[in-house]
Amino acid sequence: xxxRIPEYLRTALIRDYGEAEAETIAAGFPSRRPVTLRLNPxxxxxxxxxxxxxxxxxxxxxxxxxxxxxxxxxxxEKDVQALPLYSEGKVYLQSLSAMxxxxxxxxxxxxxxxxMCAAPGGKSTQMAALVDxxxxxxCCERDAARxxxxxxxxxxxxxxxxxxxxxxxxxxxxxxxxxxVLLDAPCTGSGTILLGEGIPPxxxxxxxxxxxxxxxxxxxxxxxxVLKPGGTLVYATCSILREENEExxxxxxxxxxxxxxVREDLREAIPALPVRIPGTLCVRPTELFExxxxxxxxx
Length: 299
What we know:
single chain, 299 residues, alpha/beta, Alpha-Beta Plaits, Rossmann fold, 2 domains, eight-stranded mixed beta sheet, 21% strand
């Protein structure tokens, strides 16, 4: 296994998946991944936006599982950011794995939706785009600077029915109730490693992981408390460690939520790791996909 992978992560991968699978996972941590983005139908016609990308020589490649996703195999992010269509909000730079949670939300016009850890706004803006902006979004972000960035992105992407709360979602008033909740929880980022960039050591130490899991479980408890009966909760992390994923989902199931299997078409299209809770999805890190976990739960 590559020596640049932190010792704790090496140990955890072997513990969770066995030595052979751990080696395969480690081989999926690349030096870089290609630029990927979403077309934003709230700000422009999809065909016109794609034509602009082609005219700029960026060669956008579609994916079968999501109409708005594009891979730019020959581009850098700065190439996209230099285009007028970027500042006009017609595209949003986002990893493919990070696009999955919003696709699993059962969104319908008129729904009240909570994004608990929303900054910088990729998933909030995506959810709005999926239903032509016709949902009422509440977006939480406890850091003031990140909350301001979230407001900027919502405005740039043309999302009008959204309220940004500069607060820790764990402190939400218990009177709140939502039709759907997205909890893209803070995590170790164990699935997003790029070996050429190095990794902050503290993220892969036992004390940091334990603190992170404690936060995830507290956020999950709050998510359940503000979810309406019959409502849907999507839990996601950019980690591939089971203590941050299946173990946290078990706390929700123990609290009475029912697991809803991830869409079969997505499970078939996305490279996946073995999971201990059938119906959840843990994305295998590859040169194209970040490691990611998603579970859908219903109250």
